[in-house]
Structure formats: structure tokens, C-alpha cells
Amino acid sequence: MVTTPAVAPEPQAPINHLGRIFGALFSPKTTFEDIARQPSWVAPIILLSILSTGVAYFLNARMNWGSYIRQKAEENSRFRFAQLPEEQKDRALAPQVKFAPYFSYCFGVIGPAIFALFFGLVYWASFNLFTGAGLKYPLRLRLQRMPRFHRPLLRYWPSLRWR
To answer: In 10 A of CB 34, how many CB atoms?
Structure first.
């Protein structure tokens, strides 16, 4: 009796980070299958940081930080800023006006990473609390480990069937 060996399907070559970004828009099925096989978060965070820094650049080019900070300080009735003499106002606002553009650049660079870590922690905690998933924080959060959450989603998004 002759047996023919079963031919295993060839694994697909992984999609690079730039291909994943554009693939999520133009060919989502193959892109999300690749992301499910090998998740990565570095490229999206770097892209968001670059975009946020660009927004900070254009904001600083158009923004008059001195008048903005002065207006917000005068609107705040707790500190009675409007009653101070002009010299004290200028002295109080000088450090804020000096560091506001730098702060916007710093927030543009590290803000997306902080938000990603925060929301990752929120999702991790909610999956553990509400579904009893028992996931550890650094593990991949794959929906197939949580069947009560996974089955209703498959009705609406069949592309979530990761294997």
C-alpha cells in the first residue's frame, strides 16, 4: 500500500510594518491574519508619535502661547490673576510661555506610547475582571481565549477567526 505524504501549506511571509499600515486600509483580511499570527505595536506607536510631533510643530507655529496662557489665567477665578499688577503677571507667565512649546513637542513624542500603555492596561483589567480570562499583562490579548466575548463578535466580524 502506497501512502502519499501530506503536504503542509507553506507559511506566508510576514508583512512588514509599512505594509501592515496600508494593508489595514486596502486588504484588511490578510493584514489582520498576519497581525493575529505575529502582533506588533512598535510601528503604529512610532507613526502616531511622528504625526503628533507634526501636529505640535504646526500648533507651535500658529499659537501665541503668551496670550493663550494669560487668557486662561485670567479666566480662572481661584487665583485672582486679573487683579495682579502687570509686572507680576509677566513674571508669573514667563516660565510657562518659555516651556509651553517644548512641552507640546514632548507630549507629541511620548503621548501616544503613554495612551497605548494606559488603554492596554484598561483592556487587560477589563478582560480579567469581566470575562475571567486570567491573562497576564504582557501576553497577547487574543479574543479566542475568551469564548463568551468571542462568539458574539464572530457573527458581525467573520475576519476575527484567527487560527
So the answer is: 19
CB hemisphere CA count around 97 (13 angstroms) = 17
- Angle formed by the axes of helices 65-75 and 86-131, nearest 10°: 80
Alpha-carbon distance values, 92 to 20, 86, 97, 98, 101 (Å)? 48, 10, 9, 11, 17
CA 14 to chain centre: 22
Q: Nearest CA to 101 among 138, 140, 67, 56?
A: 56
The grid coordinates listed for 124 are 487587560
pLDDT tens digits, one per residue of 3-29: 666 665 666 777 888 888 888 889 888
pTM above 0.85, yes or no: no
CA angle 88, 94, 99 (to 5 degrees): 155
Provide DSSP, 125-148.
HHHHHHH-----TTS---GGG-HH
Backbone angles phi, psi at 38, to 5 degrees: -145, 85
